[in-house]
């Protein structure tokens, strides 16, 4: 290639030499060419003026790739059509589009777990149940009581007997009556206990006030001592004893109602220092009026008449 260019340049230079100075110039005959040093002319005069846009083969081969070796690369036109330019990416930083800068990407990725901090899929499958096999929080809250609403093992052990200390259903059925069988065999427990009393004595001396006593047991233990009410024959019962009588006594819960029949020679309604001739007393404290959780005592005082002194009637206590 360089030989061809050299000839072209030399011919052009020769023509330039013929025209130099604006006048004709004689050309030496061919026999005189041997006296001209063209190599020196090329080196000193023509080569320095050659077009420097050209390079030698060796420099071109060492600087540029051959076109045949660029099959795996995009041309500039292809690259422009496939990739965005740097100016195109300026409006896409920070997740506003499909691209982010390296700094923005690093900041974005810092919010995610690193590889060493996460389970692989195989490890997750081994450690956790599939979502469909588990209850959600809302489902669990609806299905099970809160831990604070349940007994711990220690609390359960302290509150309930062990299974080994309890009867099975079959054992209970064989050892105890069912409710229907019990209802058929036994009288239901009364909410009002009822009974009668009779206290009698003899006053042998006129104008003396004989004193007699008796007691009644409830046959059970009340939760608290009842409030005492004495209803004389012919009196209207108080609210606590409403509807009751000596023939059919009754009492509200926590109340003891004593219904008197007509008495004989008992100092009822008389003005005596010791008070009324018929009194209900607490046998555990002797307080009058009063009663205990187990029963009550009766104190009867005669009116001074010689003969029998008698007081009798019925009682009811509400449980």
Can you describe this structure?
- It is a single chain.
- The chain has 319 residues and is α+β, with helices and mostly antiparallel strands.
- It is rod-shaped.
- The strands form 2 sheets. It has a 4-stranded mixed sheet, with no helix packed on it.
- Among the domains are: 78-166, no CATH class; 192-318, no CATH class.
- It has helices spanning 2-19, 38-46, 57-63, 76-82, 102-109, 121-127, 137-143, 153-159, 169-175, 179-185, and strands spanning 192-203, 211-217, 227-231, 255-260, 278-281, 295-301, 307-318.
Secondary-structure map:
Blueprint: H1 2-19, H2 38-46, H3 57-63, H4 76-82, H5 102-109, H6 121-127, H7 137-143, H8 153-159, H9 169-175, H10 179-185, E1 192-203, E2 211-217, E3 227-231, E4 255-260, E5 278-281, E6 295-301, E7 307-318
Parallel strand pairs: 3-4
Antiparallel strand pairs: 1-7, 2-6, 4-7, 5-6
